[in-house]
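User: Teach me something about this protein's shape.
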Amino acid sequence: MAKITSIHARQILDSRATPTVEVTISLDTNINAVASCPSGASVSIHEALELRDNNRSVYGGKGVLQAVENVNEVIGPSLIGKDPSYQNELDLLMNKLDGTENKTKLGANAILPVSLALARVSAQEQKIPLYKYLRNLTSHNDSYEQPISAFNILNGGMHAGGNIDFQEFMILPTTKIFPKALEQAVTIYTQLKKLLHENSFSNLLGDEGGFAPNFSKNTEALDYLLLAIKKAGYVFQKDVEIGMDVAASSFYDDGIYNLKSESKKITPEELLVFYKSIYEKYPLRYFEDPFYEEDFDSFAKITKTLPASCVIIGDDIISTNSTLLQKAINAKAITGVIIKVNQIGTVTETLQVIELAKKNNIKTIISHRSGETTDDFIADLAIAVNSDFTKFGAPARGERVVKYNRLLEIYSELHKA
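Assistant: First, the predicted structure itself:
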C-alpha cells in the first residue's frame, strides 16, 4: 500500500494571468503527480467558494496565498501517511476539515487541486490511465464512448469584454471519430478567421480562444457560424451542428433582461419568444443557461417549448451541485447539465452529480472554465464517465489545446485495433 509522503501547494497563474493553486503530491514509492485549479469569469452564486486574499497591493487582491497555506498547513498534514487511492474517504476528510457547506473556510481552490492530484497519483501508482482509474470510482463497466465536442469559436459576454450579450457560440461536429471532429473544427475555425478579416472584423481572441469581433447583434454571430461551416465545405446539421451559451444571468437585473446588442429590455416571457425565433432560424443542438440562474420556471418553459433535439443545459442554475440538480429534475427544467469540477470542489462530489444526471437521463457536459491551466484532467474525466459532450473552448491557446491533445491520445489508446 502506497502512502502519501508530502503535499505541497504553490501559487501559479491561469490563462487570464490570475493566480490559482497548483498542488504536488508525492508517495513513498517515488511517484508524484501535479494538479491545478481553474477559475471562472461567469460565476454562479451557488458555486463553492474560490478563496482570494483580497490584498489589493498583490495581484489586485486576486492572490491565493491563503488557499496555498490551507493546503500546506491544514490539508497536507491531515493526509500525509494515508493511501491516496481512498479517494472518497480523503475527499470527505477534506470537506470535514473545511466544515462549511460551500468550502468557505479552506476554499474550493485549495481542496480541488488536492483531490485531482490524489486521483492522478493513484492512477500512476496503479499503472493505469487516469480515465480508467476514474471509471473504477463509478458503478459503470460499459464500453467507452466518445463525447461530442462543442467548440466555442466565437466569444461574447464576459468572455470577450461585453462585445455582444451572449457568451459562447459553438460548433459541434457530429462524428464520434474524434480526430475527424477536431480536424473539422480547426477547418471551420480557420475559415471563420478569414471571413472576419474579409469583412473588417477583429480576429483577436477572447478568454476561451474564440474570436471576439464587435458584432452589432447576437444573431450575427450565428450567421457567421453557418457561413464558416458552408465555406469550409461542410453541411449544417448533417456534418456540424451549432450551439449557444447565453449566460443569461450576466445581463439579468431584477426580473428584466437587458439585451444591449438588441437595444431592448425584456421580460422572461418576451425573452422566450426571442429564443423561439432564434431556434426557428438557427436550429440549435445545444442551448445553455437561457435564463437567470434562479428561474427554474422559465427553464422548464423553454425545455417544454423547444424540440427535444435541442438540449437545454443548466450551468449556473446547477453549479455541479446534486441538490440543485435534483431540484431541476423535479421541475423538468433541463435536459443537460454542465459539469465543472471547481464548482463543487472534489472528484467524489463531481462523480455523484454525474451519476445523478445519468440515472435521470440528463445529458452531461464536461466543461472547462474561462480561466484555465494546462492541466488536462477533464479530458480523462469526460472519457471515464461517457459524457455526452465536452466543452473545452476553441481549438486554440495552449490551455485549451492540451485538453484536445489529451482526447486525441486517449482516442488512439482506445482504438489501437
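Now, about its shape. DSSP finds 13 helices and 15 strands in the chain. The first strand starts at residue 4 and ends at 13. If you'd like, I can walk through any region in more detail.
User: That's plenty for now, thanks!
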